[in-house]
Amino acid sequence: MAEPDAPGDLQKTPLYDLHVELGARMVPFAGYEMPVQYPAGIMTEHLQTRDSAGLFDVSHMGQAKLVGPDHETTARALEALCPSNMVELKPGKQRYTVLLNADGGIVDDLMVTRPRDESLDGHLLLVVNASRKHVDYPLLEAGLPDGVRLEILDDRALIAVQGPKAVEAVAAHAPAAADLEFMSGDFMEFDGISCHISRAGYTGEDGVEMSVPAGAAEAIARALLADDRVEPIGLGARDSLRLEAGLCLYGHDLDETTSPVEGAITFCMQKRRREEGGFPGAERIQAELKDGPGRVRVGFKLEGRAPAREGAEIQLPGGPVIGTATSGGFAPSVGAPIGMGYVPAEHAATGTKINLVVRGRELPAEIVDMPIVPNRYYRKPKA
Amino acid sequence: MTTYFSKDHEWIAVEGDVATVGITKYAQEQLGDVVFVELPEAGKALSQGDEAAVVESVKAASEVYAPIDGEVVEANEVLAEEPAKVNEDPEGGAWFIKMKVANADQLSDLMDEAAYKAFVDTL
């Protein structure tokens, strides 16, 4: 992740005043002043999201779009930089992918949506990490062919509403949101304001992400927070929620040295791309797909109560250091400390006993399947 | 019994030659939900400024420093089982350690309650 800027240089999202009014503790994050928690506290906010619904300001994330003459041209342009199948992405569907460097390392992870509306044929909507905008945008601009351009949408805010009651709460203002399938999105009105709403998020729960005009963000957030089911949630709980859900935080669990195979996110690589290659670092990534990676991201759960944080060494019991934790903390929905990190593939099996070294102490832990808390994404009932 | 406060947001209640040390209400508010407390063992000799304990909140680990020199005579075992007590009763039942006061002169460097309140107001 990028180093935070000096305090004077920090940017504010359109919801800054609302966060302060709600009593948030504001901290520097990726160049923005962001709410790490509200008075309820991280534990309560985390459980609120799992039990009902939480509203997250994620306006610091980068919103942009690729604009080309038709879907195939724009999709092929993006495919040259990422290992996912963008050409066959259907209208209204969304896909998680990564931008790659020439060595097959991950430059950023991002969400890509193909607008449903036919009049927007040739557009792809992107949401990238706040800390990576300054890397992603030049990389995209340099990599796009003539006829496909990058438009940065810095006049929009991004609001995530997550939790089992999130879609009900949003649908009270934007009824069409209730009809969205998981990983799909559409433009629709929220109390008469045009928004792009997609059924996705980063908590492991059902919910939406809403790209809204910056000037309307506060009104939309207030309308949602007026609903008893919805409470504001800070970045602290966003981190513990995504960790339980087994989702990567760029700059911690993924970086420019990690490939999608090492990062255990090969689900972002569809069959055609795996076979054909044609993305940066394809040689390495295809070899890792065939022979297995040297190291791989795993989840772990500690036996005791002491958390192991990012940077803690991973040992085999009584043996050598085999890896490092890349995320870690107390998991409110598990009631125990958990984390993720990288270990050699031969020690990555579920159930492997490991130690996390914290302040010189060896804390016993076990490699567990991810997600550690089962995800509850919306699945359309079978007709 | 006299209670003193440090700039690191510890309270030190001195009775005879034994000081009970904990973290202040302000400190627990700043930490947020406490999920683990690592305490020293009885008999450990601490110098002023040494790391005496570690408090882990959901978000981060924070050190608690010895406000004065002294030997640890008791650690509050209740916190091992119920770390959330630090949030509920930081200036009472959720004390961290009892120390034998080795150098009473060091107490004069600490603040009284009024001075500590004024200090917190500047933060």
From TrEMBL, chain A:
Alphabetized Gene3D superfamilies for the sequence: Aminomethyltransferase beta-barrel domains, Aminomethyltransferase fragment, Probable tRNA modification gtpase trme, domain 1
EC number: 2.1.2.10
Domain GCVT N-terminal: 15-271
One GO MF term: aminomethyltransferase activity
InterPro entries found in the cross-reference section: GcvT (IPR006223), GcvT/YgfZ/DmdA (IPR028896), GcvT/YgfZ_C (IPR029043), GcvT_C (IPR013977), GCVT_N (IPR006222), TrmE/GcvT-like (IPR027266)
Positions of the Aminomethyltransferase C-terminal domain: 295-372
Catalytic activity: N(6)-[(R)-S(8)-aminomethyldihydrolipoyl]-L-lysyl-[protein] + (6S)-5,6,7,8-tetrahydrofolate = N(6)-[(R)-dihydrolipoyl]-L-lysyl-[protein] + (6R)-5,10-methylene-5,6,7,8-tetrahydrofolate + NH4(+)
This protein's UniProt keywords: Aminotransferase, Transferase
Pfam families for the chain: GCV_T, GCV_T_C
Enzyme class: transferase
Family: Belongs to the GcvT family.
The protein's name in its UniProt record: aminomethyltransferase
Organism in which the protein naturally occurs: Roseibium polysiphoniae
The organism's taxonomic lineage, starting at the top: Bacteria, Pseudomonadati, Pseudomonadota, Alphaproteobacteria, Hyphomicrobiales
Name of the gene: gcvT
Automatic annotation (TrEMBL), chain B:
Keyword Chaperone set for record: no
Cofactor binding note from Swiss-Prot or TrEMBL: Binds 1 lipoyl cofactor covalently.
Needed co-factor(s): (R)-lipoate
Domain Lipoyl-binding: 18-100
Lineage: superkingdom: Bacteria
The family this protein is said to belong to: Belongs to the GcvH family.
Official protein name in the record: Glycine cleavage system H protein
Source organism: Roseibium polysiphoniae
Chain's gene name: gcvH
